Amino acid sequence: MATYKTQIQWGGPNAEWHDDADLIIVIQNRDGVMPQNGVPSTGTQISWASVQGNGSVTFFEDGNRFAGSAQFKGEGPVGYRGTLKR
54 pairs with which residues across the strands? Predict the structure, then answer.
């Protein structure tokens, strides 16, 4: 499990970033994609889709940050990034 402080960006690549809700990631399967008390490896990509929204991110710096995009229910797509909370 890993918790990330997140930010969203709308209005283009040079627009300001805005604080958003924390993202908690738990990935489990038989091959240990992510250690139980660890973070995703650099280059790990995850995507999700639900009635609440969807997103796709890639992890960098040994899982210490991620970047990608998201779209939340009733909103347009936004830039989405996060930094590991310690």
Answer: 49, 71
- In 3-state terms, what secondary structure has residue 36? coil
Running DSSP on this structure, what letter comes out for residue 34? S
Q: Are the CB atoms for 36 and 56 separated by under 8 Å?
A: no
Burial code of 38-71, b = ≥16 C-beta within 10 A, e = fewer?
ebbeeebebeeeeeeeebebebeeebebbebebe
pTM of the model: 0.86
- Tokens 């995507």, residue? 47
User: Nearest 5°: CA angle at 57, between 56 and 59?
Assistant: 160
pLDDT tens column, 38-69: 788 899 899 999 999 999 999 999 999 999 99
